[in-house]
Known about the structure:
CATH superfamily of the largest domain in chain B: MetI-like
Largest sheet of chain A: 2 strands, antiparallel
Helix content of chain A: over 70%
Largest interface: A-B, 103 and 113 residues
Strand order of the largest sheet of chain A: 1-2
Structural class of chain B: mainly alpha
Order of helices and strands of chain B: HEEHHHHHHHHHHH
Strand content of chain A: under 5%
CATH topology of the domain at 70-178 and 208-277 in chain A: MetI-like fold
Shape of chain A: globular
CATH superfamily of the domain at 70-178 and 208-277 in chain A: MetI-like
CATH class of the domain at 70-178 and 208-277 in chain A: Mainly Alpha
Largest sheet of chain B: 2 strands, antiparallel
CATH topology of the largest domain in chain B: MetI-like fold
CATH architecture of the domain at 70-178 and 208-277 in chain A: Orthogonal Bundle
Structural class of chain A: mainly alpha
Strand content of chain B: under 5%
Number of domains of chain B: 2
Distance between the termini of chain A: 11 Å
Strand order of the largest sheet of chain B: 1-2
Order of helices and strands of chain A: HHHEEHHHHHHHHHH
Radius of gyration of chain A: 23 Å
Oligomer: heterodimer
Distance between the termini of chain B: 38 Å
Amino acid sequence: MTAIWSIATPVGDKPATVPSAAPTKRRAGLPLLLLVAWLVVPLVPVVLWSVARGWFFPALLPAEISLAAWARAFANGSDVWRALGTSVGVSAAAAALGMLIGVPAGRALGMHAFPGKRWVEMLVLAPILVPGLGVAMGLHAVMIRLGLTGTAGGVVLVFLVPVLPYVVLISASVFATHDRAFEAQARGLGASSWQTLRHVTLPMVAPGLSVAAAFAFLVAWSQYGLTLLVGGGRVITMPLLLGQSIAAGRNDLAGVAAVLTILPGLAVLVLTSTLLGRGGRR
Amino acid sequence: MPVRAASVRRMVAPTVAVLGLLFGGGLLLAVLQTIGVSPFVGRFDVSLAAYRQVAGLPGLWASIVLTVWVATASTVLSLGIGVSAAVALRRLAADTVLGRATLFLFQANLTVPHVVAAVGAVWLLSQSGLLARAAFGLGLISGPQDFPALVYDRAAIGTILAYVWKEVPFVGVVTLSLLASVGDRPGQTARSLGATRWQAFRHVTLPQIRPGLIACGTIIFAFALGTYEVPALTGASQPKLLPVLAYEMFTSHTLADRPAAVALSLTTAAAGLGMILAWRSLLTGARR
Lengths: 282, 288
């Protein structure tokens, strides 16, 4: 299984060197504590700014805690509502399209050997290694022609370039461990191919594919450069709103935008770990 | 079980078509645009003017050096810290509360968009940021100007730290799963044969996880080379990193700059791929 989620299951067995285990564990405390601090510290000012009012140097903490930025963010017709809607819409659309297009390819790559397989794999890996900005610049002129620049549809379309590789690779690893004998069994017992898909295949691969869908959503949700380039300032997602608030010097609004930009990822993390906890273990 | 070639072809066709059109087509149009061919505008005056314009950009070399420095330093630091963290975590604390907390934070951090990491880095590291305030509180500095410029700086420290913050958990999570698939046995055997802990790691465990780590480093390097938002938010106005330079040229009001902007993006991508290939063959060569 691919690294990213295999880790959701506990990592391995304990070392067998019993005598030294207890003292080393205590020694591990400090470096790990530093690691935890390193992971958390950059997020501290993000959360603080979202509730700060007039937080100037050298105050270590905001003098006054205020929810004004949050209230403003969730006022009717605010930028934040609009950006949230746009972000959820384009990310969900890109993830759904990506799944529809990419999962069959994942199945082919995960379960079958076929002529030209190497080339398909290379095509799928290429967008991870080649920065998307140049590709999007190349598409820009065509997209202007087709009236797709500055539209959510155009943004969804270019999002497929970063999203598809993840969908294909994750679903390929899901199908690599999938046993076709169950499908053959069902067909042998008289199930139609649709019934086999519906009642045998899907329930077996559903947890893994949900993870693929969740990652596809997050990959789309995190995009910045492509949105800016193809959206042309008219498609404002949460990451872009965050960038705009920073440029405008509104750190309080930027704090709110940053917290809201992180939340879906945390939700997805909880969701996928429950999914994998339920069905993903061997 | 043999499957008909036609049905496999049907399964991969949509992905091949979409990536071929969007990625391959985009790349092809980008290349054409840089040599003066725009089929959709009906322009066919083939020339290398765009590349000449790129070569003549003032401060280009400073941008190139800085970009390669950022990508290299981010990759090396992320790999070093991430692998050490994973090894420590697995050997010492996989089942402690602190170990579990670290593991959760690793995974949580993976989901944080890069733009948030960049903003966090600015608010933490700038001269009026949280660290500077803490230093002032401790009496280490007497004002913001005494705090070292860690963001918007010419060595791009803030940009590198933002990348490293994002990529350490990525490396850590990948390494943990690589270590889990290798298992503890080979290292323990080496230890029982008299190897020190470092020797066992260096000569027994590391060679087995090396291909996975090289893949990991490749992804980080390529990403740090081509991402816009992190240097745009944390970088100095002079010199700019190449993706920022390319984006700004592309969206400037001078439409004539566009082919040069595309040329700059493509050259960066090509040079990056070249460096990755050279680096990989060096690393795999060194193993023998």
